[in-house]
Amino acid sequence: MSDYRPVFEMSMPIRWGDMDAFGHVNNTVYFRYMEQVRISWLEHLGFGGGHGARQGPVIVNASMEFLRQLHYPGDIVCRMSVGEPGRSSFDTGFELRRADDAQTLYASGNARCVWVDYAAGKSVPIPDALRATLGNATFVRLD
């Protein structure tokens, strides 16, 4: 993620229900953490959309490298980064750490967001205001 710029960081609790039968946070939940940070960032920027939105982001691919297991209880800190935008897409990167073990990287992931006209089901150019934000994004930390 060397060509990515950090733009957003927030903490979230690890919930008891995030764990699976093996006693660690289920792998699918890491993607939910990544999703929540991305949505919170977009809402912070004023691009939250919601159910009535005509346009917005769709994830076309996502990946995660699981480096260490997470366990309840505790809080995670997720940092999001963005790459240079294309016509209708931009790449995001994520790092997940425990709040009480901030020096250890527990997982890292990526997701490509494509801006879509929901009714047409087709990609459309990223809105100018979002493109400007992506081009000179400033870092925000939510506590």
Give the overall shape, derived from the CA principal axes.
Answer: globular
Q: What level of helicity do the residues show?
A: 10-25%
Instruction: Calculate the terminal CA-CA distance, rounded to whole Å.
Output: 24 Å
Number of helices: 2
**CATH class group:** Alpha Beta
What are its keywords?
single chain, alpha+beta, Thiol Ester Dehydrase, Chain A, 2 helices
Can you describe what's shown?
The protein has one domain (5-142): Thiol Ester Dehydrase, Chain A (Roll), CATH 3.10.129.10. 19% of the residues lie in helices and 38% in strands. It is an alpha+beta fold and 143 residues long. The longest helix is centred in the first third of the chain and has 19 residues, at 27-45. The protein is globular, with a radius of gyration of 16 Å. Strand 5 (107-117) and strand 6 (122-123) form a beta hairpin. Strands 1, 2, 3, 4, 5, 6 and 7 form a seven-stranded mixed sheet that branches.
Task: Please write out the topology.
Elements: E1 5-13, H1 27-45, E2 55-66, E3 75-82, E4 89-98, E5 107-117, E6 122-123, H2 128-135, E7 140-142
Parallel strand pairs: 1-7
Antiparallel strand pairs: 1-3, 2-5, 3-4, 4-5, 5-6
